Model the fold of this input.
Amino acid sequence: MANHSIAHNVYVPFLEKKGFLSWILTTDHKRIGILYLVSISLFFLIAGFIALLMRFELLTPASDFVDPHTYNVLFTLHGSIMVFFFIVPGLAASFGNFLIPLMIGARDVAFPKLNIASYWIYLLGTAILLFALLKPADTGWTFYTPYSATTNTDVVLLTFGVFVLGFSSILTGLNFIVTTHKMRAPGMTWHRLPLFIWASYATAVLQLLATPVVGITLLLLITERTLGVGFFDPAKGGDPILFQNFFWFYSHPAVYIMIIPAMGVISEIIPVFSRKPIFGYKAIAYSSLGIAFISFLVWAHHMFTSGISETAAMIFSFLTFLVAIPTAIKVFNWTATLYRGSIQLHSAMLYALGFIFLFTIGGLTGVFLGALAADIHLHDTYFVVAHMHYVMIGGTVMGFFGALHFWYPKWFGKMFNETVAKIAWFFVFVGFNVTFFPQFFLGIQGMPRRYASYPAEFESLMALSTYGSWILAFGILIMAVNLISGLISGEKAPENPYNSLSLEWQMPSPPPHENFEEIPQVTDWTYGYGKKKELEV
Amino acid sequence: MASHSHSDKHEHITTYKTYFIVWAVLMVLTVITVYVSYVDFGALNVVIAMGVASIKAAAVALFFMHLKFEDSITWVFALFPLGLLFLLITMTFVDTFTRVVIP
Amino acid sequence: MTWIPEVASNLASKVDGVLFVITVLSLIFFLLITAILIIFAVKYRRKRDNEETPYITGSEPLEIIWTVIPSILLIALFVYGFVVYKEMRNPPADAVDITVTGKQWLWTFDYYNGKKTLNELYVEQNIPVRMVMISDDVLHSFFIPGFRVKQDVLPGRYVQLWFTPTKIGTFDIFCAEYCGTGHSVMLGKVNVLSPEAYDIWEHGLPGGQGQAVASLPPAELGEKIYKEKGCNACHSIDGSTLVGPSFKGVFGHTVELADGSKVEADENYIRESILEPQAKIVKGFQPVMPSFKGILSDEEVTAVIAYIKTLK
Amino acid sequence: MAEAGADQSHGHHMDPATEYSSSKLGMWLFLGTEILLFGGLFAAYAIFHARYPEMFFEQHLELNRTMGAINTCVLIFSSLTMAMGVSAIKWGKQKTAATFILITIVCGIIFGVVKYFEYSAKFEHHIYPDTSIFFSLYFLMTGLHMIHVFIGLALLAVIFVLTLKGKFNAKYNTPIELGGLYWHLVDLIWIYLFPLLYLVG
Done:
């Protein structure tokens, strides 16, 4: 401990150092977490604003606010930015960075330099995105060939930006896997790990092993456009469906890259505010790994209408139903955790409960899409749009907001206004449902997605959805203002405002630069709430 | 940390002799695969070539890359990507070649 | 407003069966979870700061129950969905063939009887139809919500889809796979005709008279064609630029071509542009327009020209 | 874990043994991603080979089998010297290790030169990546591999200089081992590329 002797008894919060260089050159996982948090939040707001423009266009059936091409560009940007720049790095990179070392009792991640390098690579990807905006692509975030190979918009730069981001994702995943294996504090056995760590681990494996495939796929698309390679071009003997196979081999697991960390967050919030041990720890932990594994096996369920054979459809539909099981197990266990608890409806807890509610809808509507006959009717309609947003916003983003409110005091050492936070939650929750619930009906009625203009029969539901988007935006605005003003003028946060047992709460807020003065000796799991005499039930 | 601390003392250092043997095997296999490629076994051509290549790859991984002496986690992460690659190829194959061909 | 488009094909009711069963099961689970969530959140709400809670870490029987029951239900749903899907995928042997070609951004239909239509599909009630489909350019998806059928249309490879229309009427055809700027106007209609009406459509009226000739004045007929044959996907009438040049005020004006030459937009120029679109490309636009030769009759081309003349 | 090593410039949160095993695990994870990166190309190869066996057979005859075989031998030999270099440094023999690394680098350069001649020959015959699916695969697979060779050479060059400067010894030699792992992977991928492209077609 020789080199730590200076730090003894002198508490220096990690936020203390100021200046641009101290941020951009930092190797402190907590600061890198903030860098990601700020970046992804920015992209979330930008892509969200684009979504508002799109919804505004869709207020009326005609293409009157923007022309169809512009609309196509807007949904491409909305999708690409939300997916690749916000939600894939998302919780995993921001809260993952902040929490993993704290929760497992380490001073940092395994490779701190690689960690900041990943962030620089992320920045490089965003820089390329900015250039791509000069002649923005209109392919949709899925870049389906042959349209993406033939459109005269700039697909190459956008896909190259995404390709670069892939490396950031891979290196982050790699770092977290090694960290979880090698850096756990003494006594922090696998079955004592917080569930967020299990979730992050499963996510990291997906990031590591799925991302290279989309990397090469996008590279092939780039060579298709630049070198005249014809893997996806039927005129040259290629196969446009091959692109879909490759693309979804990544992009289906990517859905779980987005959602699993949020599931981890929920598993942390619920026990703390119920003051109960998490119900079915092992079931939740292993279901994360199970979901991660099965997610590699279901990709072609995005292709049921593309003319795949009955055999392939049968295999993939069956595997798709399998993935629903570990997901359902998690929902049941979270709900059961509440039983006989002492439930405090803190704003973070409200987001967690909102998550369960919305994610249940998202999950159940996924069953519709997994069932072959039903999928034929619903595929590529607004039903899919609604389902996806219930999972991605209702799931991931609610988890993200929950995490923001939950760990805010620890991360920044300040408190936000709890009442305002609850009001914001209300608008977000209501606005979200008003926006997306009507879209299920639109989809069942046959309204296809990615339509710049639409038949008049859909107008009333489309308009309702647009009004909902305003409520949602208003809620997010309140939340943003509340959280930012908390940073400026919030009260000082105590060490452990919720009496959590998790390691990250057993230190000053914000944590000191090196996290722990002494690496703790862990003797129990994180969820030892409640009175133990009723151990056997 | 006790469970996975790594002690330098027990580390296996492969001798030059072992390396030379592995190298000789690799060279022999290379000669075989080139030689065999002039004979036509029909559909077996690919199978034979890939079989030989896989033996060579295994030799490189096990000895040159010391996989033989690594812990189970390394094995898992060395083999899992291969499983996924197998999955990608077979499932894409299933899709591509079971599609109904309409005249 | 209805829940779901009215059932208009033999397959639709079967798909609705699947949808219905899943909806009911989903609702049960959804209401169950929501109810428990709300009851727990209210009943166990924290009243004092130091309430005692029991140390419950899980329950294996419960774990097994809520793994096994959903698994069984899910597998049942899988089987149900697959059985219906299998039927949707296998056309009966007596189905009549119609070839569909998707291109940016219209549908053409080639019938077994040698007829050819654009964006308007004509089928006979209760006669099974097999659509053999291909794309000229990018991916499209042929979707008739009323029939609950959908199939991506691929370039370079034929795909098929079948249905038996059961209800007389007109139903929407959508392109469901994003295909570029005009994606949202790649719309068609399927007209399900009674056997008698279909016979008239196919052979003309008894007595050798041709198809009912439109009695509209040329400009109005032209407007009808403009909307129905997909011209509006690419050509605006208000001066805004879509994929192709706007029709507004184009007649009689001088147009600059891609090779720099200039030409006056008279009747012959417009006629050529409709029948042989690649011959003269207006500067700043892509040569993407399909030929309407064989799709529009001379009379109809004349009507379109008459309509364009009215767009000052 | 409590007595964190004091001699590490950046990772003083880790003791040397953990740092060593972490780095190696990290490298293996990275190699896994490399396999999947090439995996897309291997999958494309499998699909198109099954679809166009005649085209693959006819066009693969255009490739120079002798040059391919020479390059295979060169790479396998470089793998041998790399592995020996790792053993040498673990026995503390800095000079020997440096020599082995240098031989490895030279082999890598020879590989690149041979490949250069192969590519030039193809271009002279007007064979480009867009000539056919087979040649697309040929150029993309060997090209991506070539990029990896270059990256490997750059890494080895740095490692060589550091070895000469005496930065590595029997106790601390992680970079050499990691560089070696990367180089072996480059070899390993070529072991598959060679028969797929040059031999069976």
User: Anything to note?
Assistant: The CA atoms of residues 57 and 487 of chain A lie 36 Å apart.
